[in-house]
Design a protein that fits this description.
This protein is an alpha+beta fold and 293 residues long. It contains 9 helices and 8 strands.
């Protein structure tokens, strides 16, 4: 059975190849006849226009604006060469069909999309895209509704770009995400004659519960940093006091001690006992002796 299947596949491929050759031969013959017929019609039309030039000039002359280009279809085929415009150009009215393309930059808003990030969070993201047409012929012949196709492509690309990153990456590397989205849109829409100029993320909407958690986390971090700064200040102050006290004489230390007592505010909740400095000296010397033992 596998051998029979292989033989059937080979026969089918040979049949398809033979059919393609026959179609190409028939199509080539028909195409040659149609091309000759089209050339004859074009020559006859040109001769008729020359014979009736003063009258036919009004029908053959067309004008497009500076920001527009005209793609001409003659007998259903695009006329070779670049799109016509801007300014004045000539056509054959009964043979040509004109489609005008705007080359100005177009912007549109991508509708808010609910996207699941790489770390499992559901976000609502919207963006704005700026693009312009650089090849009018491709824009007319390759895509039916270019605006709708570009907008749909932007929506799917936004989902893919945001879904491949975590929330932290989206918040910290927002520009990098938009640049990768630009590259993806440019690679996909280049076949349509479109140049994507800029992509920007407008808003990232987080769930209410996640916003509260992030606010609590940020507040806890700020409190921790404040406590660390206060502790570092206390350490520096104690070191400075120790250095200052080591340079004072006993008399100066006693005067400073008395001055500190006088600066304490009188209050019923504060009780101050004054002790002679000799007792403190005896206490410190006793500690040094016991430490030496």
């Amino acid at each position: 059975m596998p051998g029979l299947n292989r033989i059937g596949v080979v026969c089918q491929e040979e049949f398809d190849a033979e059919s393609a050759k026959n179609l190409s031969k028939d199509g080539g013959r028909r195409g040659g006849v149609l091309e000759v017929f089209g050339a004859v019609l074009t020559l006859l039309s040109a001769a008729f226009i020359l014979c009736t030039f003063p009258l036919s000039a009004w029908m053959c002359a067309k004008v497009v604006q500076e920001y527009e280009r005209a793609v001409i279809f003659r007998l259903g085929r695009v006329v070779k060469g670049r799109a016509k415009g801007p300014g004045l150009f000539w056509i054959i009215p009964w043979l040509d069909v004109i489609q005008t393309v705007d080359l100005r930059t177009v912007s549109f808003n991508v509708l808010p999309q609910e996207v699941l990030t790489a770390d499992g969070l559901l976000l609502k993201v919207d963006a704005v895209v700026f693009y312009r047409v650089v090849d009018p012929s491709l824009w007319v012949t390759r895509v039916k509704n270019g605006y709708q196709a570009t907008q749909t492509l932007a929506q799917t690309t936004l989902r893919a770009a945001v879904g491949a990153h975590t929330l932290t990456d989206l918040l910290a590397q927002r520009r990098g995400v938009t640049e990768r989205m630009e590259e993806a849109l440019l690679a996909a829409s280049r076949l349509w004659g479109v140049l994507v100029e800029r992509v920007e993320l407008k808003d990232l909407t987080l769930p209410v519960g996640l916003q509260r958690c992030m606010a609590s986390e940020a507040e806890a971090g700020r409190r921790a940093r404040a406590k660390m700064i206060a502790a570092e200040g206390e350490v520096k102050a104690s070191r400075a006091l120790k250095e200052a006290a080591s340079g004072l004489s006993p008399v100066a230390l006693q005067l400073r001690y008395l001055q500190s007592l006088s600066s304490v505010q009188s209050s019923a909740s504060i009780v101050v006992f004054s002790l002679p400095t000799e007792l403190l000296d005896m206490f410190f010397s006793h500690q040094q002796i016991s430490a030496g033992r």
